[in-house]
Design brief:
- With 177 residues, the protein is mainly α.
- Helices cover 61% and strands 2% of the residues.
- It has five helices and two strands; from the N terminus they run E-E-H-H-H-H-H.
- A two-stranded antiparallel sheet has the order 1-2.
- Helix 3 packs parallel to helix 5 and helix 4 packs antiparallel against helix 5.
């Protein structure tokens, strides 16, 4: 038997009619006229396409819902970070910045993986920006800025890890915050 003996484009390979060999028999046909027009295959090509399509759609929808959940958590986490920053600016309380760093990261991380991701991105960006702006606008030297940045990042990590942000709360800070 050579390759020329096999059909190039078989139309119907399986038959659902009972035969002497059982329910499934191979019908090798080279043209649609030889194969017949019956499309009653219980597990034919179109049924397999349907099952494959259903599986792929369910996977896509499952992944899509996870991404939407992640982005929703990230959005809410960013709002938590903004709220902590706004409270810090409003309180204007000496030595309270570490508390607000920890609280913002804590609140955001409690939202889920998206919130923790947003908290890390925002915290890192803020510290990187401050590294350049503080010497220009506040007149701090590079050693002071690096030390403060490390302390801020430690407070950020403390909050993101789920530890109590009140550890950094200064005495006398109003209960409103």
């Amino acid at each position: 038997m050579t390759c020329k003996d096999f059909p190039r484009a078989p139309v119907q390979l399986f038959s659902s009619r009972p035969t002497s060999q059982g329910w499934l028999s191979i019908n090798i046909a080279t043209t649609p006229q030889q194969a017949g027009t019956s499309r009653s295959d219980p597990l034919g090509i179109s049924t397999m396409k349907l099952f494959t399509g259903l599986i792929l759609c369910s996977l896509v929808l499952g992944v899509h819902s996870q991404w939407m959940s992640f982005f929703g958590e990230a959005y809410e986490g960013a709002k938590d970070m903004w709220r902590a920053y706004s409270d810090m600016r409003e309180a204007n309380y000496k030595d309270a910045d570490k508390y607000f760093h920890a609280r913002g990261n804590y609140d955001a991380a409690r939202r889920g993986p998206g919130g923790a991701w947003a908290a890390k991105v925002i915290s890192d960006a803020r510290e990187n920006i401050q590294r350049f702006t503080d010497p220009l606008f506040k007149g701090t030297t590079s050693g002071q800025g690096q030390e403060d940045s490390r302390a801020d990042q430690a407070a950020n990590e403390w909050g993101r890890s789920g530890k109590d942000p009140n550890h950094f709360r200064p005495a006398g800070l109003p209960d409103k915050y």
